[in-house]
Amino acid sequence: MSECPMTLNGKKLIETELAQLIKVDREYIKQAISEARELGDLKENAEYHAAKERQSIIEGRIMDLQSKIARARAVDITTIKTEKVVFGATVKIFDQQKETTSTLQIVGEDEAMTDPHKISFTSPLGRALIGKEAGDEIIVKAPKGDLAYEIQDVKYI
Q1: DSSP 18-86
Q2: How far apart are CA 110 and CA 120, in angstroms?
Q3: Domain 78-155: which CATH number of 3.90.1150.10, 3.40.50.261, 3.10.50.30, 2.60.40.10
Q4: What CATH fold (topology level) applies to the domain 4-75?
Q5: What is the pLDDT of residues 38-82, one digit of tens each?
Q6: pLDDT tens, residue by residue, 115-157
Q7: Which end of the chain, C or N, has fewer beta carbons within 10 A?
Q8: Confidence bin at 1 (pLDDT 50/70/90)
Q9: Where in the chain is the domain with CATH 1.10.287.180?
Q10: Per-residue CA distances from 69 to 2, 64, 74, 155 (Å)
Q11: What was the pLDDT predicted at 157?
């Protein structure tokens, strides 16, 4: 079983979603299945089949989140003391092709999906940034060609 690194905030978000699924959504779907059963013949009961399908999706998501929490390695980024880019760093980068600056935080995969200013440490850009320092230039291999960035600042906030 491999570890699943995430920030403390990311772990909290997963725990919140899990609690919602278990305490609210699961109970709601149990009630919906019960009501659909009372409507009669289950073979031709669309409400029953839709509720059972929704139940399957909810249970699958619960199992997925429980697995992630069990494998979680929560990182308190406020305690990190380094100039290098590591997991949890907030990095200001300059895109040399577009001549734009953006600020990104390197986080776990689930956290990266919820915010456009967060990238996964497993993404091509995330992997290229790890281990670098402010002032370093990096090249990211992309399908449309190499992308060049300059690291302007590294913070742990």
Answers
A1: HHHIIIIIHHHHHHHHHHHHTTS-GGG-HHHHHHHHHHHHHHHHHHHHHHHHHHEEEE-GGG---SS--
A2: 8
A3: 3.10.50.30
A4: Helix Hairpins (1.10.287)
A5: 877 777 788 888 999 999 999 999 999 999 999 999 999 889 889
A6: 889 999 999 999 999 999 999 999 998 888 899 999 999 999 8
A7: N
A8: low
A9: 4-75
A10: 12, 9, 9, 26
A11: 86
Q: How many residues does the chain have?
A: 157
User: 150 φ, ψ to 5°?
Assistant: -120, 130
Residue 156 half-sphere exposure, CB side, CA atoms within 13 Å?
A: 16
pTM: 0.79
CB 93 within 8 A of CB 152: yes
Domain with CATH 3.10.50.30 in the chain: 78-155
Q: For 24-41, what is each residue's pLDDT tens digit?
A: 999 999 999 988 888 777
Q: Which amino acid is at 128?
A: A
